[in-house]
Write a structure and sequence with these properties.
alpha+beta; Jelly Rolls; six-stranded antiparallel sheet; 3 helices
Length: 156
């Protein structure tokens, strides 16, 4: 395949991905008034809070997910937003002062550690999670709290 043809495919792929990202980012609230997980954070906010470089979210197709559930991913960081939830009263490590209910969870898989923060604001439950080395969990938990604090006003 010629270099110019390969370059054309790469450019078309990038333009398509950026167009999808822009469409989701602009759709903070749809016709039903629902909030999409990808609208809660920008790449710049993720990079500033986590200290990571350029992020690439892969927006979910909200029509394919039951009950208005939406997800968005930036490198290892994931956000899952579920509307119309009721309190679960289940926790690993409770967090006070963040929404009506909040907790951290952790799960080990081989040499990696999954860590997450789940919190509820009004009718929404947002779950943020990441996979990182086990020795980075304590360092990353405050960053998850910052992300949750940033998203909270958008969920009210």
């Amino acid at each position: 395949m010629q270099l110019s043809t390969r370059l054309t495919f790469v450019v078309l792929g990038i333009v398509t991905m950026l167009g999808a990202r822009a469409a989701v980012a602009q759709a903070t609230k749809g016709a039903s008034g629902a909030v999409h997980a990808c609208s809660l954070f920008t790449d710049a906010v993720i990079a500033k809070i986590t200290g990571r470089g350029t992020s690439v979210p892969f927006p979910a197709d909200t029509s394919a997910l039951p009950g208005g559930h939406t997800e968005c991913h930036w490198v290892n960081l994931g956000a899952a937003l579920t509307p119309n939830v009721t309190p679960q009263n289940t926790a690993i490590e409770l967090i006070s002062g963040l929404g009506e209910e909040a907790y951290f969870w952790e799960r080990r898989a081989g040499g990696e550690q999954y860590v997450g923060l789940v919190f509820r604001v009004g009718q929404y439950q947002l779950a943020l999670s990441d996979m990182l080395p086990a020795d980075s969990v304590a360092w990353f938990k405050p960053k998850l709290v910052q992300l949750a604090q940033f998203a909270t006003p958008k969920l009210k």
